[in-house]
Amino acid sequence: MSMDASTERKLLEHARVVSNERVAEGVGLIVLESPRVAHAVKPGQFVHLRIEQGASFLLRRPFSIHRVVGDRLQILYQVLGEGTRALAGKERGAEMDLIGPLGTGWFVPEGTAHALLVAGGLGAAPLGMLVEALALRGIAVTVAQGAPTTERLVARELFEATARRVEISTDDGSAGERGFVTALVERLIAADRPDVVYVCGPEAMTRIVARQALAAGVACQVSLERLMACGIGACLSCVVATVDGQKRACVDGPAFDAADVLWDASEIPPKH
Ligand SMILES: Cc1cc2nc3c(=O)[nH]c(=O)nc-3n(C[C@H](O)[C@H](O)[C@H](O)COP(=O)(O)OP(=O)(O)OC[C@H]3O[C@@H](n4cnc5c(N)ncnc54)[C@H](O)[C@@H]3O)c2cc1C
Ligand code: FES
Asked: Could you tell me if 154 and 179 lie in one domain?
């Protein structure tokens, strides 16, 4: 057996669908019974799902773990193409195999007392476990969440139940402030300075927030999405350019220190 096959085998788990429901237009929440991963996963890590068998599904699809409850993983997914359409059709009792947990997850710097989490659209997905873990450690959390419209503010209830403060922006003004979340971030950093900023969302937004945090001298971690074929560091399809050379998002990330990322040299992934 090759090294990659043996790595994959060690990380493999057969997961069973517990529930799968629409939570917003084009967005679903699937709950998978997956005890080994559920007990090992850390905030910011992901799984690589084989949604179906067959030629279109030879490549697994990567998804962040949104939350863990007991033996169960919660995954928030946006329906985009063949894989996520098939995922939306999965019913209770269906089985899928996955490998995980993958990636390094978010890093919490020593001495953090206040964290600002910035979620753009489905970028809320990998911040669910993080908000819960930070709150459990007694760290004050502010969330800045942005979406096109109120219905797309996924995980808003979780943030409101767990964070000390939640600020919202929507493009159409249907909830919170009208406009982009970056405007909220600018004010929040100035008025209620965090020790660290965590960002996940469209890459253009992520870059702006990283610049805002770094300009204010605040540490910042960004979760970067790249095309991923193997998910275990073997294929180099997921590289991110950093000050320390090319890194693989699947094993060195997907969370990176924003100060290390060479943004202009890093490929901008397709817009979701
Ligand atoms: C670490 C990581 C975590 C992610 N977490 C989530 C999440 O929690 N929720 C969520 O909805 N999406 C997440 N994504 C994106 C998700 O993997 C893609 O949207 C999904 O693979 C699309 O599959 P598809 O077959 O429906 O689309 P396709 O028809 O295959 O493609 C539709 C779009 O998705 C992109 N895509 C396809 N395969 C991949 C891949 N292997 N990696 C990245 N992008 C891909 C394509 O470039 C295209 O733009 C994550 C991606 C990464 C890298
Ligand atoms: S997906 Fe293969 S190296 Fe990252």
From this structure: yes
Whether residues 97 and 119 fall in one domain: no
Ligand 2 atom nearest residue 250's Cα: 4
Pocket mutation for ligand 2, best pick of 232, 240, 246, 267 (most atoms within 8 Å of C-beta): 232
Number of domains in the chain: 2
Domain end residue (candidates: 68, 102, 136)? 102
Taking residue 116's Cβ as centre, other Cβ atoms within 10 Å add up to 28
pLDDT tens figures, 4-56 = 778 778 889 999 999 999 999 899 999 999 999 999 999 999 999 999 987 77
**pLDDT tens per residue across span 182-225:** 999 999 999 999 999 999 999 999 999 999 999 999 999 999 99
Assess contact for 79 and 88: CB atoms under 8 A.
yes
Q: To which H or E segment does residue 5 belong?
A: helix 3-11
The closest ligand to the CA of 128 turns out to be 1
- In a domain, residue 36? The reply is yes
Same domain, 169 and 257: yes
Residue 127: strand pairing partners = none
109 occurs within a structural domain: no
In testing the pocket of ligand 1, which one of 84, 152, 199 has its CB within 8 Å of the most ligand atoms? Answer: 84
Alpha carbon of 61 to ligand 1 centroid (Å): 6
